[in-house]
Write a structure and sequence with these properties.
266 residues, mainly alpha, 0% strand
Length: 266
């Protein structure tokens, strides 16, 4: 009986080795690495961790901003710097192969030029609501100090670079040699899963948005277009809310818009 069991284990071990040898190294590394990086971001990027263990090393007046900066910075580090460096070091010979080249930048510029004005108008309308002004920017002191606001938004932009590269760069371009065009749907799956705790309309839209952004990046052959497309929604909402809070202007028509800038100029 023990002889039969040992023979069975040897057979299974040989099967396991053959299966492992058949795996594509880059795709295996990317999909496993993406999972690990998400877990590390949740653990290491936790703002509570920063407040408990690190905030004491920073002047009290900067601790609030630094707490958000820690979260944003860890997303940028673990979502962009680490995976891009790993892909470049171990698998890719050019930046284009990992989505960091310019790609079809003319096409990307046209898409951005058409999309961003629509987002600017949409976020202007949303910013008129009190609920949005209470929520955005997340770090409310940024509404009272422009220096703090721009530091906050610069850190926020780094967050979006990390968020977008992890899926539309690392996973999309990293698995493309194995999955081809289907890599668009591969990168959309974890992206949608991370929205599961959001309100259900946003959660469902994340499926559509993830596929659409993946397809756009695939068409442009560069992940960079995904950053302004996604980040502009939140950053423009932050800007409009901050301006309304500072000036007290309400309304969504042209007269409200002109009144806002008149007060700023005055």
């Amino acid at each position: 009986m023990l002889h039969a069991l040992a023979a069975r284990l040897r057979t299974e071990w040989r099967r396991l080795r053959r299966a492992a040898a058949s795996l594509d190294g880059q795709t295996t590394f990317v999909l496993t690495g993406a999972a690990v990086l998400v877990v590390l971001q949740v653990i290491l990027g936790d703002r509570g961790l920063f407040r408990t263990h690190l905030a004491g090393f920073i002047p009290r007046s900067w601790q609030g901003l630094a707490t958000w900066g820690w979260w944003f910075g860890m997303q940028g580090l673990l979502g962009f710097v680490v995976p891009a460096a790993a892909l470049r070091a171990f698998f890719a010979s050019t930046l284009d192969e990992i989505g960091l080249g310019l790609g079809e930048w003319r096409f990307a510029s046209v898409v951005a030029a058409l999309y961003l004005p629509v987002v600017a108008v949409g976020t202007w309308v949303l910013s008129d609501g009190a609920a949005f002004q209470e929520q955005y920017p997340h770090y409310q002191p940024a509404t009272r100090d422009w220096a703090v606001f721009f530091i906050y938004e610069a850190l926020f932009l780094f967050y979006w670079v990390g968020w977008e590269y992890l899926w539309r760069g690392f996973v999309l371009f990293g698995t493309a040699p194995t999955f081809g065009l289907s890599a668009i749907f591969v990168q959309a799956l974890p992206f949608a899963a991370l929205h599961i705790a959001k309100p259900w309309p946003e959660a469902l839209l994340s499926v559509v948005g993830g596929i659409a952004l993946g397809a756009l990046v695939w068409r442009c052959r560069s992940f960079w277009i995904a950053v302004p497309i996604h980040a502009a929604q939140m950053m423009l909402l932050d800007l409009w809310c901050a301006l309304r809070i500072r000036t007290g202007v309400s309304g969504i028509g042209p007269e409200a818009f002109l009144d806002l800038f008149a007060q700023l100029g005055g």
